[in-house]
């Protein structure tokens, strides 16, 4: 059971993150992207502070570790969400965007080996390639809109992918003395130091154009509590136990969960190609996680 906990944790995190595209799309009908993200992480930090103080699980950050946590907050959430938002905005096709954003498991072994000297096995590489092929098949199935759009969209989306991978490196390097809640709290707290000034410059002048009704605000609270607190803490817990390469491979199952949620709750049909793609993704994950005794 102890060995299974990281895998249970990361699957729950991916399930929660699988709901975020649906929730985010709804909120963006009322709020601007930067306002949504800033409000989401502000609520998340307040929630983690309350939980940490009440449970006495929030630890004091030592000064020598400050640069590492500042770097984590800068690359993800801050830079990741900036690059992703503007990359999605100027990319002509959502399909192209999803394909590019699904490539983070391909780069994770490279960064893990170069920066952490983390062992990368043949099974890891084969499993990641198979799983990524399944994701691309699922995205392309029944979708002919594959125009590239503005050439600036591609480097911005790749920059978002690099930030996501670097974030996992940061939380892997975080000292073992800090629990997962402490790591995620300080990373997101420091990200607000970057989000808030940018929000004042970009979105505050257009505040009157947004609609702060209870439905989008309730959805923002869901994104904060579940996607930014629970999922981030579970993902951090898993990365620190199974490593960067194997943890990042699970990012390929996020669109699978999104597709299944749309099928179950929004009556969206799944053609046979997508079912095949889901099977390929799961097969790749099994191969990636397999280790010889």
What does this structure look like?
The longest helix is centred in the last third of the chain and has 29 residues, at 214-242. This protein has one domain. The model has no long low-confidence stretch (mean pLDDT 86). It has helices spanning 5-27, 33-55, 66-90, 94-101, 104-116, 122-140, 153-173, 180-202, 214-242, 244-249, 254-266, 272-289. The chain has 293 residues and is an all-alpha fold.
SSE diagram, text form:
Blueprint: H1 5-27, H2 33-55, H3 66-90, H4 94-101, H5 104-116, H6 122-140, H7 153-173, H8 180-202, H9 214-242, H10 244-249, H11 254-266, H12 272-289
Helix pairs in contact: 1-9, 1-11, 2-8, 2-9, 3-7, 3-8, 5-7, 6-12, 8-9
Q: Write the element-wise H/E pattern from the N-terminal end onward.
A: HHHHHHHHHHHH
Low-confidence stretches: none
- The end-to-end span amounts to 17 Å
Q: Quick check: average pLDDT?
A: 86
Q: What summary fits the major beta sheet?
A: none
> How helical, in percent, are the residues?
over 70%
Q: How much of the polypeptide forms β-strand, as a percent range?
A: under 5%
What's the gyration radius in Å? 19 Å
Query: How many helices does DSSP assign?
Result: 12
Shape call = globular
Tell me the number of structural domains. 1
Task: List how many beta strands DSSP finds.
Answer: 0
Structural class: mainly alpha
């Amino acid at each position: 059971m102890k060995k299974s906990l990281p895998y249970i944790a990361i699957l729950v995190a991916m399930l929660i993150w699988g709901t975020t595209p649906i929730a985010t799309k709804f909120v963006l009908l009322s709020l601007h992207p930067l306002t949504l993200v800033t409000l989401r992480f502000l609520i998340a930090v307040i929630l983690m502070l309350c939980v940490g103080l009440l449970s006495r699980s929030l630890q004091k950050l030592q000064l020598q570790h400050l640069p590492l946590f500042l770097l984590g907050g800068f690359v993800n959430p801050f830079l990741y969400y900036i690059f992703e938002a503007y990359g999605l905005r100027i990319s002509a096709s959502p399909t192209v965007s999803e394909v590019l954003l699904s490539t983070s498991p391909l780069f994770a072994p490279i960064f893990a080996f170069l920066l952490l000297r983390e062992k990368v096995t043949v099974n890891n590489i084969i499993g990641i390639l198979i799983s990524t092929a399944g994701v691309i098949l699922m995205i392309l199935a029944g979708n002919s809109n594959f125009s590239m759009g503005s050439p600036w969209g591609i480097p911005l989306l790749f920059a978002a992918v690099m930030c996501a991978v670097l974030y996992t490196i940061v939380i892997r390097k975080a000292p073992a003395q800090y629990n997962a809640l402490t790591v995620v709290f300080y990373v997101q707290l420091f990200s607000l130091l970057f989000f808030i000034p940018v929000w004042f410059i970009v979105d505050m002048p257009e505040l009157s154009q947004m609609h702060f009704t209870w439905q989008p605000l309730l959805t923002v609270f869901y994104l904060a509590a579940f996607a930014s607190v629970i999922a981030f803490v579970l993902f951090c817990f898993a990365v620190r136990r199974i490593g960067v390469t194997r943890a990042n491979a699970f990012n390929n199952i996020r669109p699978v969960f999104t597709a299944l949620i749309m099928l179950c709750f929004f009556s969206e049909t799944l053609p046979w190609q997508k079912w095949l793609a889901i099977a390929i993704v799961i097969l790749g994950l099994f191969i990636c996680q397999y280790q010889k005794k």
